[in-house]
Design goal:
Order of helices and strands: EEEHHEHEEHEEEHEEHEHH
CATH class of the largest domain: Alpha Beta
CATH architecture of the largest domain: 3-Layer(aba) Sandwich
Largest sheet: 4 strands, parallel
Radius of gyration: 19 Å
Number of domains: 2
Strand order of the largest sheet: 3-4-5-10
Distance between the termini: 29 Å
Number of strands: 12
């Protein structure tokens, strides 16, 4: 909308909330429609950003069949819409297609190491088949497609209780609760701020790159290191605002979930060379923004 486009958003609010887009309500170029993409939707459009699917492990494991249906049927319906309207189609795939990788960092040529029947398979394999379907429509019907493999992303308006590591750590630290690390904390992740992700998706949509593209931040942390960084930033924000702490929160360890990847870092060479895109936000910068947002929500009683 800031670029002058008319935007129609479809959401069934299975995991999302209207508050994430409430600031756009009333804008003349914005329309919000409650709809589940597992059912067809008719509209005239030029570009389709297919972002629908639960991405938090507690959510997608809670309803595995729904997750698979969204990845397959939702993608099928949106590709059908793209075929009819001749719209360019972008699917939000995921770094989870690489599974527990044996190659590090992961580039787009890596086929992955995924457990097809484990508790995470509904999401991992759902996204893999969605990519297959996307390229099937490209080859068979000439649909103009883009595939974004998104790595761990965080930012304000993220559901604080969706079970993801960034929101978990921040909420626990702000509330003075022990921060929970699963396993020994040596597993690694790379985190990108939401502004960088959005810039990357727009760059990809408007590029000529039809191959899969990793969208992520190459700065890699062990989960133990990341927990310490979040604790440090929360304490910094609290000190600046004059918040008195009764104690320093502890970092505690619990058993590792099944099939949790041991390392994850994107090779973003293709994004840099083909899109001219690279992250602009450091992890520290993004975390400070998110901590302040959650702290404000806590002060008003909505967190």
């Amino acid at each position: 909308m800031l670029l002058g486009h008319e935007v129609t958003v479809l959401d069934n609010f299975f995991t999302g909330s209207k508050t994430t887009v409430s600031h756009w309500v009333g804008h003349p170029n914005f329309e919000m429609v409650r709809h589940d993409v597992v059912e067809p939707f008719m509209i005239e459009c030029d570009q389709i950003y297919h972002l629908a699917c639960p991405a938090s492990p507690p959510h997608y494991q809670f309803n595995a069949v729904k997750t698979i249906k969204t990845s397959f049927m939702g993608t099928l319906n949106m590709l059908g819409l793209a075929k009819r309207t001749k719209a360019r189609f972008l699917i939000s795939s995921t770094s989870e297609v690489y599974g527990d990788p044996e190659v590090h960092p992961q580039n787009e040529e890596y086929w992955g190491h995924v457990n097809p029947i484990g508790p995470r398979a509904c999401y991992d394999e759902g996204k893999r088949v969605a990519e297959t379907l996307t390229y099937g429509f490209q080859r068979q019907d000439g649909v103009d497609v883009r595939v974004a493999r998104i790595f761990n992303t965080y930012g304000p308006r993220m559901n604080p209780y969706d079970g993801r590591v960034v929101s978990n750590f921040i909420v626990q630290a702000l509330k003075g609760e022990d921060m929970t690390v699963y396993g020994d904390g040596k597993q690694t992740r790379s985190f990108q701020y939401v502004h960088d992700l959005i810039d990357g998706l727009i760059c990809l949509m408007n590029s000529d790159e039809s191959r899969p593209v990793n969208i992520g931040n190459g700065d890699e942390f062990t989960i133990g290191e990341f927990a310490e960084l979040v604790r440090e930033i929360v304490e910094k924000v609290q000190d600046e605002d004059g918040v008195k702490r009764t104690r320093r929160v502890n970092i505690v360890h619990k058993p590792m979930p099944t099939d949790d990847p041991q390392m994850r870092r994107p090779d973003t060479t293709r994004a840099k060379e083909s899109l001219g895109w690279q992250p602009r936000w450091t992890v520290r910068m993004g975390l400070e923004e998110m901590v302040r947002y959650y702290k404000a929500k806590m002060a008003e009683g909505s967190l």
